[in-house]
Amino acid sequence: MNSKTNLPAARRQRYAGPRLIAAGILTTLAVTGSPLAFASPSAAAPVDGTARAVVPAALPAPEVTSPTESEVLTGDVSVIGSTAPYTDVYVYVDGKVAAVEYGLSGTFEVIVPEARWTPGAHVLKVKAVRGDEASAMVTRHVTYRAQPAEAPVVTTPEEGATTGLRPAVTGTGVTGATIDVAIKGGAPLGSTEVKGGTWTVTPGKDLPPGGITLQITQTVNGNPSLPVERTFTVLPAPVFLAPRNQAETPDRVFFEGTAAGAEGGTVELREQGGGEPLALLEVNADGAWRTEPGQEVRLDRGPHTVTAVATNADGKVSERSEVTFTVTGAPYIRTPAAGAESPGVVFFDGYADESDVGGKVELREKGSDKILASLDVRAGGGWWTSKGQEPELDLGTHTVTATVVTERGRSTVAEVTFTVTDAPYINAPRPNAQTVPQRAFSGFAHYAIGGRVELTEDGTVFATAEVKTDGTWKTSTVTLAPGRHTVTATALTKDGRRTAAHQISFSVSGSVN
After folding, report:
1. 101 Cβ contact partners less than 8 Å away, ≥ 6 residues apart
2. Contact (CB, 8 A) for 399 and 417
3. Average pLDDT, the chain
4. What would the pLDDT profile of 9-68 be if each residue is shown by its tens digit?
5. Which domain holds residue 46?
6. Between β-strands 248-249 and 317-327, what pairing exists: parallel, antiparallel or unpaired?
7. What's 157's DSSP letter?
8. What's the rounded Cα separation, in Å, for the pair 62 and 128?
9. Could you give the CA distance from residue 432 to residue 284 in angstroms, rounded to a whole number?
10. pLDDT tens per residue across span 252-276
11. How far apart (Å, rounded) are the C-alpha atoms in residues 400 and 26?
12. What CATH number has the domain bearing residue 101?
């Protein structure tokens, strides 16, 4: 007697309501006077007691609050929303059932496990079902990414550290994985395989001086990790331009160089092995530093090794650099630098000892007695070729010697080796000069007669001039901003050939009219 078909007629009628509701048909039979009637409040029973069918509204679609349209998903995905009472929620991924939750009322969270996803774009759909009735689909277009691989551990540089231009980036990771290092928002710096649980990437190019943030990722079986960020300061060791390594110098030593990233800071010079600083020099806005007249360091004759450390405006301290030279009393040749390229008309400058002031510096080709130029040793010990004194040399490699001649006799000989090229020569302004904002440039271009000289700064041409038959050239007046400038001259010959380049640096003082 447990069969529903064997129930008395009255009980069968009372059972019909919940049975039909469970089936999702939602048609109820109202029986007048029955305490178990399933009459809808909006469908009152007719006065004659006959049964009446009630047709409700369609089953509403669930409201899906997560994921949102175009969302990027990873790991186990929670599909969150709300639905009508007594419904089952079906979740489809690309047309296939991925997860179902039964008998829900109100809010819901259906989990689609990570195993049901593949990386890439997907169409996710959600519907509610109650018995034989189903709601409309709710659609979301989503992108799935695999759960990120384990992130690498970065050992060096430490957060907030100060490094040179090419710091080794090191750490630990998953053996066999690939490590990629890049500047945040910029270019990649290198990659390597994790071997034995460790890895090292050394940038193949110099990092820009200043604060920098690197991003390091680890890719395991094609699956990348989230990036690990490391922020530090790139502050390279100062570079010595004078004296050159292994040079011979006068007793009063002139120092100069560059300290990229330490603009507005200082460079401290010391004898190797400690002791009091020899000099504390300011770094200008171009990163240059030098001992000004009166700041030269007097050292005993013999070999010396001097170290330099830069401190930037934020108090960060660079690595140490050093130069080794010998104080012999010989004059120092500053320009042209050893190994440099020079135009055929060669500008020379340097310094001698203060005791040599009033004497002469004689320049000769090595092995020759012919004097190329005889230059006055001026107050402070400086000497240079003035306009019209520059010797003109043939193309190729030259070694020129410098000797100081005074009433006391002749000094030790200094020398420099450089190469003469077909580059045009800038005669005005002079190297390292102070000049005014409005001025013309002039010079020689003996290997480009009938051609054109172009002057550039920071890669932009700002002036041109025709090369006359005597090899001279002169630009129209140009306006320069106050501050330090580095200008490059090249020439385009009559047959369209580009010559080598000549570069000078100078300073502009005063205001632009």
Report:
1. 88, 89, 108, 110
2. yes
3. 86
4. 333 332 233 333 333 333 333 333 333 333 333 333 344 444 455 455 689 999 999 999
5. 1-56
6. parallel
7. S
8. 6
9. 14
10. 898 999 998 999 999 999 999 878 9
11. 109
12. 2.60.40.10
243/322 same-domain check: yes
CB 477 within 8 A of CB 438: yes
Q: How far apart are CA 26 and CA 45, in angstroms?
A: 16
Q: Which amino acid is at 178?
A: T
Alpha helices in 309-421 (DSSP H): none
CA atoms within 13 A on the CB side of 500: 17
Within-domain flag for 513? no
Q: Phi first, then psi: give them for residue 128, nearest 5 degrees.
A: -105, 145
Using CA of residue 96, residue 99, residue 104, residue 106, what is the dihedral sign?
Answer: negative
Number of structural domains (the chain) is 6
**Cβ contacts of 100-103, under 8 Å, gap ≥ 24:** none
Q: How far apart are CA 395 and CA 113, in angstroms?
A: 76
* 199: nearest Cα among 231, 234, 228: 228
Classify residue 341: in a domain, yes or no.
Answer: yes
* Distance separating alpha carbons of residues 295 and 279, to the nearest angstrom: 8
CA-CA distance, 77 to 96, in Å (whole number)? Answer: 16
Say how far apart CA 59 and CA 502 lie, in whole Å. 83
Question: Hey, what are 129's tokens?
Answer: 């079902």
Structure tokens at 76: 């186990």
Q: Count the helix, strand and coil residues of the chain and give each as a percent rounded to the nearest 5.
A: 5, 50, 45
Distance CA 428, CA 145 (A): 63
Residue holding tokens 């695999």?
146
Residue type, 80: I
Residue 137's contacts (CB-CB under 8 Å, 6 or more residues apart) are: 61, 92, 125, 126, 127
Listed in sequence order, the residues at least 6 apart from 179 whose beta carbon sits closer than 8 Å to its beta carbon are 152, 171, 173, 191, 192, 193, 194, 199, 201, 216, 217, 218
| Spatial CA neighbour of 489 closest among 451, 469, 450, 461 | 461
3-state secondary structure of 295: coil
- DSSP helix/strand/coil, 162: strand
Q: Per-residue pLDDT tens for 404-455?
A: 999 888 877 889 999 999 999 898 888 877 889 999 999 889 889 999 999 9
The verdict on 359 and 288 lying in the same domain is: no
Cis peptide before 46 (omega within 30 of 0): no
Residues 336 and 290 in one domain: no
Alpha-carbon gap, residue 203 to 168, rounded angstroms: 7
